[in-house]
Amino acid sequence: MAMGHQSGLKQPMHSGPIYWMMAIRHSRMIYNKFRFVIILALAGLLAGASIDSKDFAAADLFQIAKIWTVEFVFTPAQWKAMQPKNGPGSGHRELGREGGRNGYAAANGVVLDYTHGNFSIDGRSFDDVAVRYKGNGTFFQGQGDGKISLKVDLNKYVKGQKLAKIEKLNFANNITDMGWMNEELSYRLFRDAGVPAPRTSYARVNVTVTNQKAREYLGLYSIVEDVDDVFTQDRFGAKDGLLLKPVTTELFRYLGEDWAKYNQMYDPKNTMTAAQTRRFLDFCKLVTDGSDAEFAAKVGDYLDVDEFARFMAVTVWLTSLDGILDNGQNFYVWLNPATQKFLLLRGPRTIHSDSFRGMVRLHSGEAFRLRVPIRMAIRFWLACLACLRFERFIWQRCGSSATRFSGLSGLLRR
Questions:
Q1: Would the pTM count as exceeding 0.85?
Q2: Which of 38, 72, 131, 267 has the least CB density, counted as fewest CB within 10 Å?
Q3: Number of Cα atoms under 13 Å in the Cβ half of residue 104
Q4: How many of the other CB atoms lie within 10 Å of CB of 27?
Q5: Where are the domains of the chain?
Q6: Taking the CB of residue 231, how many other CB atoms lie within 10 A of it?
């Protein structure tokens, strides 16, 4: 009876398999809830060199868990010189006037000039830097909200002035990204996929106009790495390749031998050599006029097909339509001098990945196909069949992206 009575007793709540299953589940819930705190704490412990240190590097600047404090100071004359000016438009959707900027704002006659100013980041000061507004669609929206994206050139007026070997910085206003995370995670996904893309961090941006405008907090911005010769030196170990920033829905279409027909459309960021011009024109001829057999045999000689497929895979997966899939902008073309092959690079932009979600059904297929010569579209999309082997990688990245989302959301709520 005693034994039977003992066996009928309830087990204590702190023992038994059910208790331990619940305890493990509860522990996992606590970890998932606070893992961004752990991530940020570790980021703080592993933080790199101080910004005032001679060892401060680009990796220290572009820390996703860091929010910098940035100050711009202008004289009234400098502030006036930076304000947008209206000029004649180009008559095109995105293409600016010859010799000027490209993009929607430029095509509509908006001129954004550099002005002189002083700049500091977390107390480290840079005198006489070049500053201008930047952006196109978001420029107009930013005007109404008082928060326009900015571009800073540390080296333009004071030669040799750099921050961690970097000469130019972009401050994106994130005005179409309510969570301030879309582009940061998108850039990271491109980089994880092996596509060269800018690094980012965050900044609280303040502006002062001496004797005219008291210090004003403009808001939270993203600091975005510029794609220039410093970028290509870091990624490819070379500055002497050809760097282009196209604005065209007919990429690599052959327009004849006169470079003047391509110049504004491809906006070269360095001085082109005769050999680079020849290489570009020969590839355009192959894309536009080559037979199917010739194209299949030679495309790999001109284009890094694997990198191109990765670029297109991530672009499609992100439904990133403010670019090659729609208006043909916000990316770069790089001719690698080591391989003599063209690559596509992800460039800084101000309209974010989910801003065109309602357009996906139309533009991701039909518009891209109709705006590009049909043979060229078929050839390029055949290259994208390599994306099928990329699918597993993308879904594996979903898990790590969710972790980063948790970390960023915690950081930005602070």
A1: no
A2: 38
A3: 15
A4: 10
A5: 67-225, 231-405
A6: 24
Distances (CA, A) of 263 to 43, 48, 96, 248, 291: 44, 42, 11, 12, 27
Instruction: Write down how long the chain is.
Output: 414
Q: Are 64 and 201 in contact (CB under 8 A)?
A: yes
Query: Would you state the torsion angle of the CA atoms of residues 395, 399, 405, 406, taken in this order, to the nearest 10 degrees?
Result: 160
pLDDT truncated to tens, each residue of the chain (414 aa)?
Answer: 444 333 333 333 444 444 434 444 444 444 344 444 444 444 444 457 899 888 999 999 999 888 999 999 999 999 999 999 998 888 888 888 988 888 888 888 889 999 999 999 999 999 999 999 998 877 877 777 788 999 999 999 999 999 999 999 999 998 877 777 888 888 988 998 899 999 999 999 999 999 999 999 999 999 999 999 999 999 999 999 999 999 998 899 999 999 999 999 999 999 999 999 999 999 999 999 998 889 889 999 999 988 988 888 888 778 766 778 778 888 999 999 999 999 999 987 645 444 444 333 333 333 333 234 444 444 455 445 444 444 444 445 444 544 554 555 455 555
- The kind and range of the H/E element at 306 are helix 305-317
Among residues 179, 204, 225, 217, the alpha carbon closest in space to that of 409 is found at 179
DSSP H helices, 91-146, are 104-107, 137-145
Phi and psi, residue 115, nearest 5°: -130, 165
